[in-house]
Design goal:
The complex is a heterodimer of chains A (143) and B (196). The termini of chain A are far apart. In chain A, strands 1, 2, 3, 4, 5, 6, 7, 8, 9 and 10 form a ten-stranded mixed beta sheet that branches. Chain A has 143 residues and is mostly beta strands. In chain B, helix 4 links the parallel strand 3 and strand 4. The radius of gyration of chain B is 21 Å and the shape is globular. Classes of the chains: A mainly beta (143), B alpha+beta (196). Strand 5 of chain A pairs antiparallel with strand 7 of chain B, so a sheet runs across the interface.
Chain lengths: 143, 196
């Protein structure tokens, strides 16, 4: 009996570690317009996951030299922006990349982001792979 | 002669030690009953910085209630989000209800041109100010604002900074703070109080 259980253990572990695949959808991606000479911008989006757990591991845009996942931590009124290696997208959840919180920081913008234009955006997930889309640039005071 | 010189140097040494002692000794302890109010009462005060036109800008010129926020133009998220929020709140209260003042805590990268381009982004007036590092330090002290550079992976730096907005009345007196997580009705109440 014990022997049989032991023999099953690896199978059970494999079953536990490979849940259903993620089903990721990126909605409402947007960025705030930037000023001429301003090197960095931010992109926000809503990530809807109707499948198994995944992780956002990176991002890219042709308009920026770098695109990194950043989060803001506020301590005692002081805001610290730091790079996150990755962002968990748990099974069956919606994760918001939102102003003042976690966002994609675009570094080394090649040209200013102008209100009304769309910029290409790729989000990379550990399991779902790369999802290509675009983000609308809004006027700075619009939202 | 040599002895006189030695004595003179000794006197210089004693004077120096005395000055260092005076400069570094802890300040006298304030009476406990007023200690909780002192920091609030001392927030703000007149300041002169540099406007986006490169000319000196004195706070006396504001002449109306103002919301003052400290940030930097390489700040892609919190700073534009805060300024956007302030312009939105001002639209609700009336366009002349209060001035919005943005002070750079990154004067090494933010000259008048950078600050001007950044504040012009918004569809309603934001007064962008910068200054020499010493001037900025002075105004930060007046508003009890903290900022420090933090290196970023891959080069460059970001600036950790106090993201509190300070609301000042027409006379430049401190009225209240706005925190990013506060709901709009609370913020509007405070703004009305500052603008009354």
């Amino acid at each position: 009996m014990i022997n049989a259980l032991l023999r099953l253990t690896p199978l059970l572990l494999v079953a536990a570690c490979s849940p259903q695949p993620p089903a990721i959808e990126v909605r409402d991606a947007w960025a705030r317009a930037t000023a001429p000479g301003q090197a960095s911008g931010a992109v926000y989006a809503t990530i809807v996951n109707k499948g198994g757990a995944d992780r956002l591991t990176g991002a890219a845009s042709e308009r920026a030299r770098t695109a990194m996942i950043h989060s803001n931590q506020a301590e005692d009124g002081v805001v610290k922006m730091r790079m996150l290696g990755e962002l968990a997208i748990p099974a069956g959840t919606t994760v918001a990349l939102a102003p003042g919180a976690t966002h994609i920081m675009l570094g080394g913008l090649t040209t200013p982001l102008v209100a009304g234009e769309r910029i290409a955006l790729t989000l990379r997930f550990a399991r779902a792979g790369s999802i290509n889309g675009s983000a609308i640039v809004t006027a700075p005071g619009a939202r | 002669m040599a002895r006189v010189r030695l004595i003179l140097w000794l006197l210089v040494g004693i004077a120096l030690v005395g000055m260092v002692w005076l400069a570094t000794r802890p300040p006298p302890v304030a009476p406990t009953q007023s200690s909780s109010e002192t920091p609030l009462a001392s927030i703000g005060g007149p300041f002169t910085l540099t406007g986006s036109d490169g000319k000196p800008f004195a706070s006396a010129r504001l002449g109306k209630p103002f919301a003052i926020f400290f940030g930097f133009t390489h700040c892609p998220d919190v700073c534009p989000t805060t300024l956007a929020r302030l312009t939105r709140l001002r639209r609700l209260l009336g366009k002349d209800s209060f001035a919005i003042v943005f002070v750079s805590v990154d004067p090494e990268r933010d000259g008048p041109v950078e600050v001007g381009a950044y504040t012009k982004l918004f569809d309603s007036p934001v007064i962008g100010l910068t200054g020499t590092p010493a001037q900025i330090e002075q105004v930060k002290r007046q508003f009890a604002v903290y900022s420090a550079k933090a290196p970023m992976p891959g080069g460059g730096y970001t600036v950790d900074h106090t993201a509190t907005v300070f609301l000042m009345d027409r006379g430049g007196q401190f009225v209240a703070t706005l925190a990013p997580e506060e709901a709009d009705p609370v913020a509007l109440d405070k703004l009305k109080r500052a603008a009354s």
